[in-house]
Structure formats: C-alpha cells, structure tokens
Amino acid sequence: MYVCNCFGVTEAQVRKHADDGASTPRQIASACKAGTDCGSCVRRIQALLGRGACPRRELVEQGEAAVALAPRAELPEAA
Predict the structure, then answer these.
(1) How far is CA 10 from CA 19, 48, 65, 66, 68, in A?
(2) Which CATH architecture describes the domain 2-69?
(3) How far from 56 is each of 11, 24, 33, 43, 59, CA to CA, in Å?
(4) DSSP symbols for 10-49
(5) What family, per the record (predicted)?
(6) CB contact at 8 A, 41 and 3
(7) How far, in Å, CA of 5 to CA of 76, rounded?
(8) In DSSP terms, which residues pair with 2 in a beta bridge?
(9) 44 vs 70: CA distance, rounded Å
(10) Nearest to 5 by CA among 57, 54, 41
(11) pTM here?
C-alpha cells in the first residue's frame, strides 16, 4: 500500500527505513522524500513510526477552554 503518492513510497519502504534507523518523519523524508511534497502522508508516516499524529491546534485550544471552564474540585483546607 502506498503511503506517499507523490513519490510512490510504500508502507514496506517506510518500515524498511525505520528498521534501518529512521525514527522521525524528517529522517524518513531524508531517506526517500516521502512527506516533502504535499505533506498529506506525514500523519501516516508518524503512525507507522509509532509516534502518533500531533493534535490539530483548534482541538488543543478547545481542550484548554474546557479545562478553563470546568469547575474546580474543592480541596480540604490545611489545618
């Protein structure tokens, strides 16, 4: 299965580069150019490397807003 359609890079090729020591999408890109054109494959490369995709900024901001609005737990006062 293709991971990077721009450069015709397959999952097997990404895994081979990972087995050879590549541990980041940038290192994969250096090895085979995957992720350097349109960038749509970078999240898939991250997943193959076991790194997980970074959350989108708006989701992070929503989470911060939810935390800010959540009621705080009452803690017992120190004696």
Answers:
(1) 14, 11, 39, 40, 43
(2) Orthogonal Bundle (1.10)
(3) 24, 19, 24, 11, 5
(4) EHHHHHHHHHTT--SHHHHHHHH-TTSSS-TTHHHHHHHT
(5) Belongs to the Bfd family.
(6) yes
(7) 58
(8) 10
(9) 34
(10) 41
(11) 0.63
Q: Is residue 63 classed as helix, strand or coil in its secondary structure?
A: helix
* Strand (E) or helix (H) holding 2: strand 2-4
User: pLDDT by residue for the chain (79 residues), tens digit each?
Assistant: 999 999 999 999 999 999 999 999 999 999 999 999 999 999 999 999 997 645 555 555 555 555 555 565 555 666 5
Q: What are the structural domain ranges in the chain?
A: 2-69
